[in-house]
Amino acid sequence: MSRMVDVEPLEPGAFARFGDVIEAEGPPDRLINEGLCGRWHDRARLDFADGRAGISLFRSEPRTLPFTLALLERHPLGSQSFLPMGGTPWLAIAAPDEDGRPGRPRAFRASGTQGVSYLRGVWHAVLTPLGGPGLFAVVDRIGPGANLEEHRLAEGWLIRAAP
Amino acid sequence: MSRMVDVEPLEPGAFARFGDVIEAEGPPDRLINEGLCGRWHDRARLDFADGRAGISLFRSEPRTLPFTLALLERHPLGSQSFLPMGGTPWLAIAAPDEDGRPGRPRAFRASGTQGVSYLRGVWHAVLTPLGGPGLFAVVDRIGPGANLEEHRLAEGWLIRAAP
């Protein structure tokens, strides 16, 4: 099996098994503020086993393609949503679970105005901005308990631009 | 009493009575992802009477200073958080409650990387981007019930740049 992963476009259908794409695509669900503002309503399947939702900010060093992905993580107690605030394109990288370990990952290229919400328990890579340092708002579970499971790969995956 | 309101800088202390400024200022609360990412942790007092938190997107027409503010609103059942995704500066406008009506408003100039969370029940203006159309992620209460109270002013306030 090739250890190469080609970056693919971020499309809601392809991403649905891992979570939700949060973007202002298509017509808004409603117009508010006397017609001056569109609302794309409730676009992520937030799911917290306990605790509560909170808003944090992440600022991450950028990555450059190609790079080797050697670490994945998941959060058993809650969904985790990433909303870009700096306009930087980024990669949302997720993997199916295979007997408690991450399987072959997929790498989705998100624009600087596309957010993503990973479903609770979905394997994903750490935040991966492409270009300048990435500022993101993060909506995730706030509460006690072990909500981080990491898996370091014996052999990494080479994440690369589509040929 | 003058019906003029001068825009002021958005500073956490000045804004605290109305809510929280969500920004990556000062050192992060923790470093994650092997030191490559800073986390400013749990920066908003989210508060939902019932229902649950959800993530929506708003895209709003821009305003130009000066303009007349004639409508304020509040959400009795939950906090409402605005996170800019398009880099556009914007105004966070809030007002104290005076016997069930909004008092004199204050207008805070936010940068394109500053978010704001209005406390539950705080009077505020509708989304006010300055410049290009403003794309924002919004974290607010999803659920049934009347969570919008609007107050139209008989006489508006002129919101203007500081002289």
Strand content of chain A: over 45%
**CATH fold-level label of chain A:** Jelly Rolls
**Main CATH class of chain A:** Mainly Beta
Number of DSSP strand runs of chain A: 17
Query: What is the makeup of the main sheet of chain A?
Result: 5 strands, mixed
Q: How many separate helices of chain A?
A: 1
Q: Look at the helices and sheets of chain A and give the structural class.
A: mainly beta
The CATH superfamily label of chain A reads Ureidoglycolate hydrolase
Oligomer: homodimer
**CATH-defined architecture of chain A:** Sandwich
Low-confidence stretches of chain A: none
The helix content of chain A, as a percent range, equals under 10%
Structure description:
- Two copies of one chain form a homodimer.
- Chain A has one helix spanning 12-15, and strands at 4-6, 8-9, 19-22, 30-32, 37-40, 52-60, 67-74, 80-84, 90-95, 97-98, 101-102, 106-110, 115-118, 123-124, 128-129, 134-142, 149-160.
- The first copy, chain A, is mostly beta strands.
- Chain A has a single domain (4-160), classed as Jelly Rolls.
- The longest helix of chain A is centred in the first third of the chain and has 4 residues, at 12-15.
- The model of chain A has no long low-confidence stretch (mean pLDDT 96).
- Strand 5 (37-40) of chain A pairs antiparallel with strand 6 of chain B, so a sheet runs across the interface.
- Chains A, B: It comes from Paralimibaculum aggregatum.
- Chains A, B: Pfam families: Ureidogly_lyase.
- Chains A, B: GO terms for molecular function: lyase activity.
